[in-house]
Amino acid sequence: MFSFLYRFFIELTNGRVTSALLKNFSQSRLSKPIIPLYTKVFRLDQQEAKDDFASFATLHDLFIRKLKSDVRPIAEGEQAVVSPVDGILEDFGDIQEDKKIIVKGKTYSMEEMLGDPKTLQKYLGGKYLVLYLSPSHYHRIHTPISGEVTQRWSLGQKSYPVNKWGMLYGKAPLSKNYRIITELDYGQGCVAIVKVGAMFINSIEITDKAKRLQKGQEFSYFSFGSTVVLLFEKDSFEIESDLVIPANVRIGEKIGYIK
């Protein structure tokens, strides 16, 4: 019953009008007075930011702030895979041969998430990682490993919450939300970077459309907190042995290695 009511009220409030109003507000100068309160509530670190928070004209500018170039060192080594975001590693595991993954006890269709049966085949039996970004996190997305971009595509229309309640009571947000997928070929296999939109501000921007991306390079951002899912091919990736669930991770930190 609670799950039904949760979904009902989310649908009731998650429409084009409400989403557009919130998005327009966050990108207008009317949102500037909220910045000090937002900064305090979410305990944002001014020392890491490239620009002073007081210089931002809108709340959206704060959401997509950049960091100083030296605050996120990138783990060295060609085989090292690094976190593409500042966030929380919520789960990791195996991509099942029956085209499913189980995240926090909830089953997701990989066929629906990727929307391409042919692409999906290469990831069956591989590994997945789910990285959640809260509204307090830095919202830009970086490359987990150097490689050639083989394809980019988008799926979905609306987005639902990907926070704790959304993952527990929502209707498969990781595979139904609006999302943009970037696939990289790193020479020994491929990784699919699934960028999942968040409720209301359903915006994912690609900032670098280059055909080759270097490890640690910024290439996109979220306009609000959301989730990144990494998918690796079978027998190609091993997660760091000392990572536990949940784990706070930062851009550039080693989360695993290519086998």
TrEMBL record:
GO-annotated cellular components: plasma membrane
Positions of the record's site feature: Cleavage (non-hydrolytic): G225, S226
Cofactor(s) annotated in UniProt: pyruvate
Catalytic activity entry: a 1,2-diacyl-sn-glycero-3-phospho-L-serine + H(+) = a 1,2-diacyl-sn-glycero-3-phosphoethanolamine + CO2
Cofactor stoichiometry and binding remark: Binds 1 pyruvoyl group covalently per subunit.
Record GO biological process: phosphatidylethanolamine biosynthetic process
Modification Pyruvic acid (Ser), positions: S226
Protein name per Swiss-Prot or TrEMBL: Phosphatidylserine decarboxylase proenzyme
Organism for this UniProt entry: Peribacillus asahii
